[in-house]
Every structure is written in C-alpha cells, then in structure tokens.
Amino acid sequence: MHYKSIGMTGTRSGLSPAQRTFVLKWLENNSATVLHHGDCIGADDEVALMFSMAGSYIIAHPGGIPAMRANSEATDLILTPLNNLVRNRFIVKHSKHLLAFPESRGPTPNSQTWYTIEYAQKQNVPITIILPNGNISSIYKQEGRRENLRLVPEPKDS
Fold first, then answer.
1. Is 16:45 a contact under the CB 8 Å cutoff?
2. Residue 113 falls within a domain, yes or no?
3. Which of 71, 136, 85, 78 is closest to 113 using CA atoms?
4. Residue 101: which residues within 8 A CB-CB, separation 6 or more?
5. Per-residue confidence of the chain (158 residues) as pLDDT tens digits?
6. How crowded is residue 18: how many other Cβ atoms within 10 Å of its Cβ?
7. Domain span including residue 16
8. Which of the 8 DSSP states describes residue 65?
9. CATH assignment of the domain containing 108
C-alpha cells in the first residue's frame, strides 16, 4: 500500500529489535511519499533513516529542547522548532496515518509518545502502535463517530 503522508512518534530510548523489524517489514510491503517526525534522539532518528533509505521525503519537526534533537542526517526539510506538544500536534495534523513506537505497553504520565497517540485518536487519524515486544495494535475511525474507535490487535506473522 502507498501512503502519501505518514507521521511517526516514538521513544527517545530507540527502537527495540522487534520494532526495528516491524519498520523493515512495513517498508517491504508499503511506501510513503513523506515521513513527518519530531527529530528527537532515538526512534525518530532511526525511523527517519530507514524511510529515507526507502526513498521517502523526510520532514523534521524539531521540538523546543535542543538537547533532545537528533539533528538527523536523513532529513530533507527541517521546520522551525516548536514546543514539543505543539510539534506533536503539527505532525498529526499533517499525517494520513501515524506509526507509534512507545517504550511502555500503555499510557504513562509525561509520555510524549502516548500524548501523540491520544491526540491522533481524537483527530480520527488511523494509528498503528508497535509495542517493544512486537505486538501490534491499530486504532481506526469507524462509522465516522469517535466513540466507535477501538483498539484492534493485528495478526502476527507466523
């Protein structure tokens, strides 16, 4: 499947081996014209590099904390730094689908990744959540009503 615009959010701790494998398999079966990421150390930098190598145009949306920036070399356009929460909303606004790589199995206080997932859900942006152990869940809008959003486990490859 080809996606025009993919957003991503992920942990500063970087991708787990299972999350890294997911990205590589996803890129074997899908493509994206544009990837929007937060230019943060860790998962943002790793995913941007993999998408860049696959031919996607990479747009970095840096946050307001310079020490957290990856300054990823795999970036075609770097936008003006914004407050992290504003930046995360901007990434969601410009994405047709969000790939999320959290460090935890569920929402945790002060997690930028889970904030972005929850914001994308409120905006009815489809989300694929790839947990560190490789389990995958998707959130999709159904029947145009927010209350019908649901977490749907996707089948694992056998």
1. no
2. yes
3. 85
4. 8, 9, 10, 11, 15, 19, 43, 47, 113, 130
5. 888 999 999 999 999 999 999 999 999 999 899 999 999 999 999 999 999 999 999 999 999 999 999 998 899 999 999 999 999 999 999 999 999 999 988 888 889 999 999 999 999 999 999 999 999 988 765 444 343 333 444 444 44
6. 15
7. 2-153
8. -
9. 3.40.50.450
Cα→Cα distances 74→42, 48, 49, Å: 13, 6, 5
**Does residue 158 fall inside a structural domain?**
no
Helix (H) or strand (E) holding 17: helix 17-29
Beta-sheet pairing, 31-37 with 77-78: unpaired
- CB half-sphere exposure, 147, CA atoms < 13 A: 0
